[in-house]
Structure formats: C-alpha cells, structure tokens
Specification:
This protein is mainly α and 136 residues long. It is built from six helices and two strands; from the N terminus they run H-H-H-H-H-E-E-H. Strand 1 and strand 2 form a beta hairpin. The protein is globular. The termini are far apart.
Amino acid sequence: MNSRKAERVRGLKESQSAIETLRSLWPAAFPEKFKLVKPLTSKALADIVGRTGWSSAYARGVLQAWKLRAAYCEAVLRENLRVDLNGKPVSETVDEKARDDARKRLAAIATRKARQQEKLKTAAISKSDDATRQSV
C-alpha cells in the first residue's frame, strides 16, 4: 500500500476522534445533531489541511468517513447549497452526481441495517428454540 493510501486509510480508521477535532474547530460544519448537518464545499479539504496540519490524504480519509454517514447523505439530498467550514452557505451547489451517490449510500446503509436486524431475529429464534429443547 502506498503512503498516500495508507494515510487515507488511517484517516478513515481514526475518523471518530479526528471528527471530534474538526467539531472543536468548526462546530457549525461538523454538528452533532443529525438535522444540522449540511453538505460541505469542495474547498473544505484544503482549509482543513491548512488549519490542522494533517496530510491531505489523512484529511481526505477523515472527510470520507464524515461524508459516508447517513446524516451527511440526507443533507446532500435535502440541501441545494453547500457550506464553508463556518457553516455559511457558498455559491457552490449540490450536483446530481452527489445526490445519486447519497441515494446509493443510504440504500447500502438500509440494506446493512436490515441484514443486522435479520441476524438478530434469527439468533433470538435460535436461542428460543434451544431453550425450548432444553426444557423438554
């Protein structure tokens, strides 16, 4: 794995704590409340790198994790304008490719949740069946 890819992957893996850092610097751009999330401007990456000192690849991984969240995908579908890191709308609009990507990601999230629920249901039924067999 080349170093840029390794840095991006590290950003993805460390995204939970890194996003907390971004929240402390730009609370309006990285809100905790689901409904307050807005699509970010394409300049966000460069601004993050400039302020945090993170490598571009690492910051890209962190932003990728942020943008893969359901809240961000729903914001892309809900909003027309993107925002800067201070949460102010910019003239950059959300395009159809971004909306299509968001729809696909939300569908993947829903599929994963349905599979997890089915596994839990199957495990509960199996556990119930085992308990029934043991009591007989």
